[in-house]
């Protein structure tokens, strides 16, 4: 049987595609060279009166030429890809034709053997049957696996029924051994999800194999033992993290256990325990922080009370205590400002007592800038000139400083 007539037309098409690709590549080069010559001519003419127009024309020609060259390059790549696809399809076509040829010869030999006087002809099988898995190289095209399968089909047609059964048994044994080794590796790593997937694939492929059932029993035993060990380890780790109030880390430990053993019953217990302990911790923290705010208020430490109240509201926004504190924030803020102004005014008085008039003047100006509408600012404005005189004039008469707690800090002589 001849196949020349079947392959002559594809061969002519392939040759035509290669010629088209070469012509497109050459045309792209010609376009680029022509555009370069035209642009050079326009650039050399920039001294003429219409130089701006020529420059714009050169830019337009260059852009157009690059666009055409890019399009031609894309077409060349498209034709090259088509050629490779065509060559692969042609190889596939040849494989199919050869398979048909081998099948025809096999049927002819079988018919000849059946018509002979009791003599039987058996197709000779190769000495060693290849039972390697059909796996194409990583960089092979997508259709390579199909072609390898077709070759395997062709080889199987040359085998007798007993030989095909022996080959199938060898392939099954090899896959069982490889999967068994893979399951042991995954079980040691604790990746039982991946191990389950591999074993499920093997069960679908060889449902009657006793070895597969033994693998299933072994995997379930390993899973149970590892689950018990991991659960005990996770429980101890959760206890340690709860003791240091590391709630997020404790939850991460439980989630990792759930990822590795999604059906473990201890997971729900650990989650419930973390939630319960966290609620107790939050209640204790809320009670402690609220009592601390009340203690600051009773001692008239208004700034600490204000900061603690703001922190409480941010942390427990949904509790009734937070609503109560929100209504008191303005009062706390006013009291804190009054206390701060009093401290600053006392500091200015102390600086004046020690004769540090320049420092007292600078601090007074900062207080006025920070609290411009306060009574303290009004008093300090009336004393700035006197402070400046004392700071800059060594011969100025000394001031009379009022005792601490008076409404103003400095009196003129």
- Estimated structural class: mainly alpha
Shape field: flat
Report Rg. 46 Å
**Unreliable sequence segments:** 1-10, 114-132, 404-413
Instruction: Return the average pLDDT rounded to an integer.
Output: 76
Largest sheet: 2 strands, antiparallel
Secondary structure elements and pairings:
Layout: H1 4-44, H2 51-115, H3 144-157, H4 161-189, H5 192-205, H6 210-243, H7 247-260, H8 266-298, H9 302-315, H10 320-353, H11 357-370, H12 375-392, E1 400-401, E2 410-411
Helix pairs in contact: 1-2, 2-3, 4-5, 4-6, 5-6, 6-7, 6-8, 7-8, 8-9, 9-10, 10-11, 11-12
Structural summary, described in words:
The protein has helices spanning 4-44, 51-115, 144-157, 161-189, 192-205, 210-243, 247-260, 266-298, 302-315, 320-353, 357-370, 375-392; strands spanning 400-401, 410-411. The chain is mainly α. Helix 2 packs parallel to helix 3 (144-157), helix 4 runs parallel beside helix 6 (210-243) and helix 11 (357-370) runs antiparallel to helix 12 (375-392). Helix content is 78%, strand content 1%. Among the domains are: 1-110 and 141-158; 336-411, no CATH class. The termini are far apart. It is flat. The protein has a two-stranded antiparallel ribbon with strand order 1-2.
């Amino acid at each position: 049987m001849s196949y020349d007539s079947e392959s002559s037309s594809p061969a002519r098409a392939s040759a035509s595609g290669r010629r088209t690709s070469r012509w497109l590549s050459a045309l792209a080069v010609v376009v680029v060279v022509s555009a370069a010559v035209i642009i050079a001519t326009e650039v050399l003419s920039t001294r003429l009166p219409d130089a701006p127009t020529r420059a714009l024309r050169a830019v337009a020609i260059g852009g157009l030429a690059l666009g055409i060259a890019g399009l031609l390059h894309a077409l060349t790549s498209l034709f090259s890809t088509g050629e490779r696809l065509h060559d692969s399809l042609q190889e596939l076509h040849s494989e199919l034709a050869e398979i048909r040829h081998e099948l025809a010869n096999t049927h002819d030999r079988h018919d000849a053997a059946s018509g002979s006087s009791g003599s039987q002809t058996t197709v000779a099988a190769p000495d060693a049957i290849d039972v390697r898995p059909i796996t194409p190289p990583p960089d092979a095209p997508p259709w390579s696996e199909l072609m390898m399968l077709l070759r395997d089909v062709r080889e199987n047609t040359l085998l007798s029924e007993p030989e095909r059964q022996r080959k199938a048994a060898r392939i099954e044994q090899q896959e069982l051994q490889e999967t068994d080794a893979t399951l042991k590796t995954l079980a040691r790593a604790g990746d039982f999800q991946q191990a389950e997937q591999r074993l499920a694939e093997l069960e679908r492929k060889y449902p009657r194999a006793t070895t597969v059932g033994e693998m299933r029993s072994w995997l379930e035993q390993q899973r149970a033992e590892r689950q018990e060990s991991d659960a005990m380890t996770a429980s101890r780790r959760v206890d340690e993290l709860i003791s240091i109030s590391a709630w997020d880390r404790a939850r991460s430990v439980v989630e990792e256990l759930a990822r590795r053993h999604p059906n473990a019953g201890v997971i729900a217990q650990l989650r419930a325990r973390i939630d319960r302990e966290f609620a107790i911790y939050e209640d204790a923290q809320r009670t402690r922080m609220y009592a601390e705010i009340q203690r600051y208020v009773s001692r008239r430490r208004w700034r600490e009370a204000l900061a603690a109240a703001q922190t409480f509201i941010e942390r427990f926004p949904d509790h009734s205590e937070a609503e109560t504190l929100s209504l008191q924030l303005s009062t706390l803020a006013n009291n804190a400002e009054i206390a701060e102004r009093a401290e600053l005014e006392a500091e200015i008085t102390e600086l004046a007592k020690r004769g540090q008039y320049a420092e007292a003047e600078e601090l007074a100006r900062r207080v006025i800038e920070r609290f411009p509408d306060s009574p303290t600012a009004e008093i300090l404005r009336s004393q700035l000139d006197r402070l400046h005189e004392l700071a800059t004039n060594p011969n100025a008469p000394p001031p009379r400083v009022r005792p601490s707690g008076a409404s103003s800090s400095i009196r003129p002589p």
